[in-house]
Structure formats: structure tokens, C-alpha cells
Design goal:
With 357 residues, the chain is of the alpha+beta class. 44% of the residues lie in helices and 13% in strands. The protein contains nine helices and twelve strands.
Length: 357
């Protein structure tokens, strides 16, 4: 019993001693941070100073490096401004579209953003391309002696010389002899015969009726006098002097009678010579004949002038050219025929011409 009491007392003493020891260590540990708050560890202070010295600032960078740093800062600031600008412009314009537009503009070469030498080269290339195009067009013009001009549906024929009449030896007597003709002026001639729609506007406006006869859209069943009246109507609409008097004589731009087609300003029927000269470059409805301005003479080629021929001597008939398959007539280029100027036929139409002034 006494031994047990002794062991309990000994154990109590040991526990008490250990408690005091642990209490002393805790007190020491808790006081050390307070002391360090008043004064930092010299080693740690040195380490912090060293770290501070390692952080680059404008104050501790050499002059050259300072300049580099300043440039880098400026570039970053500029980048920030560029990134901010699209946000500000979103209310006005989509940034993606704006960038795309700027990109496309930068891709388009202009003389302003080409160096001086390249600018000269570009100008020379443009000139060469234009000259090449001009040469090609000239070749086409020289080949057919005509070119399409601003007048809708008209072809411009340049002054030229050609063999008129029966050049193959199989024509009729009124196509002989073959002879050289020179046209000294440029003129326009319609690519096609006057259409049903075109003549219909004239018929409703002047004749107060509707024209109902046509072949493949070409107007037919029109007398020579109705054809020249259509020409005068068209000239008036376009502010030109009329080409014909009431009796069918040519008129110049001052309204005076003339026998020279080059002096006529308004729309008119082509002369025989003009029609034959242009035949290879105009479209032809093979079902119809076409009125011409000339009076008809069976032997006209035996005495016709070589320069700007036009038969103004009054006869009984007016000239028709072109031939028609409707009556099995041979449609040779040189083929000539005639009819009374007041007659209408279902295989006779016309096309317009005009002197180039």
C-alpha cells in the first residue's frame, strides 16, 4: 500500500515537472515573434534588399537600357490604345469589317504607294496594255471597215472604195458593168431592218393606227413614202433636221434641197452604194427586200458617177435591194430591183442610215 502511494506521488512530481518545462518553451517561442516585430533578422533584411536590387526600375537601369525600357513601355501603351479603339468604334462600325476594309485597301495597288521606279513601270505597262487594245480594235476596224458606235443598233462605216455591181459575171444586166465606187464620207447604217415594234410606235403616233404586218420581227407592207416619213419622224424626235421633203428629195441641215448624201443630217434610207458597201457587216432578213433612197434606172451603172453615187433623177420607180427568198429571187449582194414608191408589199421592209457629222 505504501509502495503504491509512493508511485502515485512520484508520477505526480514527474508530470508537474514536464508541464513546467513545456510551459517555459511556449513562452519563449511566443516572445520571439514579438521581438522580431521590432527588429527584423539581419539575414532576412539583406535578402530583401538583394531582391529589391534585382527588380529593374528606370532609376537603376543604365542609360541605354533605360531608353530600351521606355520604348517598350511606349509600344505597350500604343498597343493598348489600338486595342481600345475598336471597342470605342463598335457603335459606328463592326471592327472586323473595318479591319477587313483596311486590309483590302492596303492590298489594292495605287500609284501613291508605289516607289518612284515601280510607278514608272506601272504607268508604262498600262500604256502598253491600252496600246495593245487599241491595235486589236484597229485591226478589227480595218478588216470590216466598220465599228460599233454610240448610236444604238447602228454600225459606223468608214469612207472607202469598192467594186460595185456584178463582180462574178452571173448577175442581171441592171447589175452591169461592175465599176469602182468611192464614198468620201463616214456614215451609220442600222444593223437590222426596222422592227415591228419600232415602226409600231410611229404608226400609233403619226398614222393613228396599229401596224399589223411583219416577218421575223422586221416590219413589212410599208410603202417608200411611209418609210421616209418614219425617218423624218425619228429625226424630229432626236432633234435632227429632217432628211426628206414631202416629194422625197434630200434636204441638208438647213432644209435646202441637195443631191449630196453627205450634206443630209437626219435619218434616211441608205443609198444603193451605201447599202452594197455595208452588206458584209449588216444582218439581213432573207425573206424581204429593202427600200433605198435612189430612183431606179435599168442602165444607171453605165453612167453613174464614181464619187458618192446617188440617182436623184426622177423616174417611175424607187430602188429595192437585198433580194427575197419569198419569191425565189437570188439574194446576191449586187441584186437590184424596183417598185412603185406608193406600193406596199408583204416582202418589202427597210433599214435606216445617217451621215456621220
Amino acid at each position: 500500500m505504501e509502495i503504491a502511494i509512493f508511485l502515485v506521488i512520484l508520477l505526480f512530481v514527474i508530470v508537474s515537472g514536464l508541464s513546467k518545462i513545456f510551459s517555459t518553451e511556449k513562452t519563449t517561442i511566443s516572445e520571439e515573434p514579438k521581438a522580431s516585430q521590432a527588429k527584423e533578422d539581419p539575414a532576412e533584411e539583406k535578402e530583401i534588399v538583394s531582391l529589391n536590387n534585382e527588380i529593374p526600375t528606370l532609376e537603376n537601369i543604365d542609360t541605354d537600357f533605360e531608353k530600351i525600357a521606355i520604348e517598350e513601355i511606349k509600344e505597350k501603351q500604343q498597343s493598348a490604345v489600338i486595342l481600345e479603339e475598336p471597342k470605342a468604334s463598335q457603335a459606328k462600325e463592326d471592327p472586323a469589317e473595318e479591319k477587313e476594309t483596311v486590309s483590302l485597301k492596303n492590298e489594292i495597288p495605287t500609284l501613291e504607294n508605289i516607289d518612284t521606279d515601280f510607278e514608272s513601270i506601272a504607268i508604262e505597262e498600262i500604256k502598253e496594255e491600252q496600246q495593245s487594245t487599241f491595235d486589236i480594235e484597229n485591226e478589227k476596224t480595218n478588216f470590216i471597215q466598220a465599228r460599233v458606235e454610240k448610236l444604238p443598233g447602228m454600225v459606223a462605216v468608214e469612207k472607202n472604195s469598192f467594186q460595185m455591181g456584178d463582180t462574178l459575171g452571173d448577175g442581171r444586166d441592171n447589175e452591169k458593168p461592175s465599176h469602182t465606187v468611192t464614198i468620201t464620207y463616214d456614215y451609220y447604217i442600222a444593223s437590222y431592218e426596222v422592227s415591228f415594234e419600232e415602226y409600231g410606235r410611229y404608226a400609233e403616233d403619226v398614222l393613228k393606227t396599229k401596224h399589223k404586218v411583219f416577218r421575223e420581227n422586221s416590219v413589212v407592207n410599208v410603202s417608200w413614202y411611209e418609210a421616209i416619213d418614219y425617218c423624218n419622224w425619228l429625226s424630229k424626235r432626236e432633234g435632227l433636221s429632217k432628211a426628206y421633203s414631202a416629194s422625197g428629195n434630200f434636204l441638208d441641215k438647213n432644209g435646202r434641197k441637195t443631191t449630196d448624201p453627205s450634206e443630209v443630217e437626219g435619218y434616211r434610207l441608205p443609198t444603193e452604194a451605201e447599202w452594197e458597201s455595208a452588206r458584209s457587216i449588216i444582218s439581213k432578213n432573207n425573206d424581204i427586200w429593202e427600200w433605198c433612197s435612189d430612183w431606179y434606172s435599168e442602165s444607171y451603172y453605165e453612167k453613174s458617177p464614181q464619187i458618192n453615187p446617188y440617182n436623184s433623177s426622177q423616174e417611175a420607180f424607187r430602188v429595192k435591194r437585198g433580194g427575197s427568198l419569198a419569191n425565189n429571187t437570188n439574194i446576191r449582194v449586187s441584186c437590184r430591183s424596183y417598185d412603185y414608191p406608193k406600193h406596199r408589199r408583204e416582202d418589202v421592209g427597210f433599214r435606216i442610215a445617217r451621215t456621220k457629222t
